[in-house]
Amino acid sequence: MEPESGLPRCHRHPDVETGIRCTRCEKPICPQCMVSASVGFQCPDCVRNGSGTGHAPDANQPRTLAGGRVATDGRFVTKILIAINLALFIAVQVAGDRLVDELSLIGYAYNPQLGEVVGVADGEWYRLLTSAFLHQEIAHFVFNMLGLWIIGGIVEPELGRARYAAMCLLSGLSGSALAYLLSAANQPSLGASGIVFGLIGAWAVLTRRRRYDMRPVVLFVGLSLLLTFTRPGISWEAHVGGLIGGALVTYGLVHAPRVRRNLVQYAACGLVVLIDVGMILARSVALT
């Protein structure tokens, strides 16, 4: 049997010897318990009780399934997204078709009023995102806002504000990217359907992750896709692109291991961005 070193033992792990003490209460702490502070290290008890200044990973802060902060308002970002859509909808009603022509998703087309070529392939990259918040008809606007409000109220509290916002933006971008890739170059499209379908994809992933009954979600997804492919004038590419983009991002967010959570989540979002950029560049090269 090896002789003991004479060092004190951690007050939380009595079988571990240590030479480190908490800078606040001076109790012995082992490497597993040490919390980095502005000066030295502190024990989890001092940090948890608020008596320390350590940089613990928010010991008292509850976290969402994806690791985000739990907020009191579970629809904060959803309200902002609806407000943006509403502002653009009102602007379209005031400015008319001119604003729609400037912000809708057009791949590559000649505008006789301007006497010039317009579209994403002509360098108007902003259309990929502005079109995802743009509506012209009241029924289209109301339907998408209802979907955003209802499903967003389910998804946002599970992801947290920042992750939810990233997922919505990437869903909108994915929907626009696939529409840009597969639609006719001069076919304009607009609407938040890509974001709404991204929320549907996120909802499906979260339901599976929580091990809830998948049947209602599968039925809802099936009906949504049925309407997408049977109703005329619908950009199915934007719906499918948003659905896949939202599902991929959410899967990376909620399945990331805690040890490297941020790294894996950034990587998942980055992968979706790379796929979208790849589709956009391929289509631009083909059109120009």
From TrEMBL:
Q: Which InterPro entries match?
A: Peptidase_S54_rhomboid_dom, Rhomboid-like_sf, Rhomboid_protease_S54
Q: Does the keyword Transmembrane helix apply?
A: yes
Q: Which domain of life is it from?
A: Bacteria
Query: Which parts of the chain span the membrane according to its record?
Result: 76-95, 138-155, 162-182, 188-205, 217-234, 240-256, 263-282
Q: What is its main location?
A: membrane
The record gives the membrane topology as: Multi-pass membrane protein
Pfam family, any one: Rhomboid
- Keyword Protein transport on entry: no
Q: Where in the cell is it found?
A: Membrane
Q: Which GO terms describe its biological process?
A: proteolysis
Ranges where the Peptidase S54 rhomboid domain occurs: 123-254
Keywords linked to the UniProt accession: Hydrolase, Membrane, Protease, Transmembrane, Transmembrane helix
A GO MF annotation of the entry reads:
peptidase activity
Q: Which PANTHER family match?
A: PRESENILIN-ASSOCIATED RHOMBOID-LIKE PROTEIN, MITOCHONDRIAL, RHOMBOID PROTEASE
Per the record, the similarity remark reads: Belongs to the peptidase S54 family.
Q: What is this protein called?
A: Rhomboid family intramembrane serine protease
What organism does the UniProt record list as the source?
A: Streptomyces lateritius
Q: What is the lineage of its organism?
A: Bacteria, Bacillati, Actinomycetota, Actinomycetes, Kitasatosporales
